[in-house]
Amino acid sequence: MKPLTPFGAELVGFDPAQVASVAGAASLLKALTDHAVLVARELELSGAELIAIGRALGELEILPEPDKRNPDHPEIFDLTNVRSDGQIVDFDEPQAVFLRGTERWHTDSSFREIPCLSTMLYAVEVPQTKGETQFADMRAAWDALDVEAQARLESLKVVHSYEFSRGNNPGELEPWTDEERAKYPPATHPLVRTHADGRRSLYLGGHASHIEARPIDEGRELLAAIVDEATVAERVYEHRWAAGDLVMWDNRSTLHRLRPYDIANQRRVMRRVTVAGTERVT
Question: What whole-number distance in Å separates Cα of residue 169 and Cα of residue 165?
C-alpha cells in the first residue's frame, strides 16, 4: 500500500479475487476506513467483477435515475457522456446536465435515511485532458476547526434532499413526479458525524438543502461557507484518471466532485457501484 497526498492510499498489486474471502473483505474495509480513498490501477473488470468487489463490502444500492442504470447490471450506474448509440451527448442534453451537476462537492446518497458506505468508480474511457475527480477529507476539516467553531456546529442538523440537489443541476431536467418525491423524501442528519473509531467529520455537500430550525437562506449560506473552508487545497486529493483505474472512497468521511472537461466532445465512460450503509448518521 502506497500513501497518496494529502490522504488516501494506492493498493499496489490489488487482486480483485482476494476480496471475495471474508478476510479479504475485512482488510479492504479497514483500509477504506483508515485511508478514506483507495486507488487500484491497470485493472480489467467486467460488470460482474465490479459488482463482486462492491458486494464484498455489503449490499449494493439501486440508484435513482433509472435511465442511467446499466442495461445488463442494474446495480451499475453508468456515468457516461456517451449515448447508447455511441454518440457523445450535447452539452444541454439531460445526461450532460446530470453529469455537470456532479461538479459540485457532494457525498453520495446522503439524501437517504441510511446513507451509503462507499462508492466504487471504474474507468473504461477517459478524456484526453481534464475530467479529474477531487476528494476532500472531512475528518481533517473537522480537526482543523477551533474549539469554539466545533461547539457552534456540533448540535446542528441538516436536511438532505435529492430533489433539491437535482433541481440545482446546471440546466433543464424534467420536474419530479409525486411518485418520485414520495420514493425519495428528504432525510435529516447531524452536521457532525461520529465514526466507530471515535473520529468525527463534517457531513454535508450538494444534497444538503438547509439547516433544520434555521431560516433556509441563512442555513444555506452557512453550509456554503463550511464547504468552502473544508475543501481547501491542503485537504484535497485529485485523481487523474487512466483507463483501468478503480477508485473506492468512504462517503462517510469525504466529499468529492468531478472537475470540468469538454463534455460535448471528449468521451468519458465510468461505471459506478454504491455500497449501501447499515447505520444511521450519529
Answer: 7
d(CA 145, CA 138) in angstroms, rounded, equals: 11
Which residue is associated with the grid cell 475530467?
131
pLDDT per residue over 25-51, tens digit each?
999 999 999 999 999 999 999 999 999
CB atoms within 10 A of CB 165: 20
Is residue 60 within 8 Å of 219, Cβ to Cβ? Answer: no
The one-letter amino acid at 213: A
Q: What is the pLDDT of residues 188-200, one digit of tens each?
A: 999 999 999 999 9
DSSP alpha helix (H) spans, 77-137: 94-101
CA distance 76 to 93: 21
Q: For residues 12 and 42, what is the distance between their CA atoms, to the nearest angstrom?
A: 10
Domains identified in the chain and CATH numbers: 2-275 (3.60.130.10)
Q: pTM above 0.85? A: yes
The string of pLDDT tens digits covering residues 222-240 is: 999 999 999 999 999 999 9
Q: In Å, what is the CA distance from 263 to each residue of 43, 95, 127?
A: 25, 10, 9
- Residue with cell string 480537526: 143
